[in-house]
Specification:
The structure is a single chain. By secondary structure, the chain is mainly alpha-helical. 51% of the residues lie in helices and 11% in strands. The chain has one domain: Rossmann fold. It has a two-stranded parallel sheet. Strands 3-4 form a two-stranded parallel sheet. The radius of gyration is 17 Å and the shape is globular. The chain starts with a helix and ends in a 14-residue tail after the last strand. The relative contact order is 0.13.
């Protein structure tokens, strides 16, 4: 993931994020790796991102879709990301899960193949 991000920066590609993703990212980084990583996120990554925001009308529509939807694993943040990407013509996502791929976006970096453990013969 870091290599793909460094390559995007070296190529001067535009990187976008929603405020929703940033809020979740800050919370996770603060709780897990801690203050040094939080500072790096704020000082290094955030300044190169172009923020994408949502208005009240879109927020209400996304909340309604979340409540009406049957997919429990698609969060409001995921739904917001998908909608913003579609509205802005974005086709690639830095993501660790395949929800973006299922929505028709290309994952960067490409996900590693998953292998299942062979069944025990004992």
């Amino acid at each position: 993931m870091i290599d793909a991000l460094e390559q995007a920066v070296a190529e001067a590609r535009h990187l976008f994020s929603s405020n929703c993703v940033l809020v979740v990212s800050f919370a996770l980084v603060q709780c897990r790796p801690g203050q040094a990583a939080l500072r790096a996120l704020a000082d290094v990554l955030v300044p190169i991102l172009r923020p994408l925001g949502i208005n009240d009308k879109l927020h209400a529509a996304l909340v309604a879709a979340l409540i009406a939807g049957s997919r429990r694993k698609l969060s409001l943040v995921d739904r917001t990301s998908f909608e913003l990407m579609r509205r802005h013509g974005l086709t690639e996502a830095f993501a660790l899960d395949d929800d973006f791929a299922r929505q028709g976006f290309r994952l960067v970096p490409r996900p590693l193949p998953t292998y299942s453990q062979p069944a025990s013969t004992e």
